[in-house]
Amino acid sequence: MRVRQEHWNLLLDVCEKNPEVISNKFNGPDGKAKGHELWQNVTHKLNSLGFGEKNKEDWRRALIDWKCKTKAKASKIKQEIVKTGGGPANYVPLSDAEKRLLSLMGTKSVQGDDVCEMGVGQVSTS
Fold first, then answer.
1. Would you call 68 helix, strand, or coil by DSSP?
2. Which Pfam families match (predicted)?
3. What is the pLDDT of residues 9-21, one digit of tens each?
């Protein structure tokens, strides 16, 4: 089954209310059980939209794959914008859903952090 925009929008709504779904880190003594229950509920909601069904693991994998593809697309856009050579940048912009996903994930994975690297000084060989 192919994931449709309706699925992504619903998944993003759930992730905005439950940010741990994006990171897949459910903390606390009952974190694993809470995560299992949350994904069961999410799976039920997504499957109730119609268009076919997936199990819990397939929906988790779909989210992981979408996160990876969106980060790669955003990184490519950034590279395209800053590259030299003249002429306009040539890229397909992020969709609204992809922008929402990046805002939930954090853009540090695409843009990097603002920490200046000190590097290693030159080593004398004499």
1. helix
2. Myb_DNA-bind_5 (PF13873)
3. 999 999 999 988 8
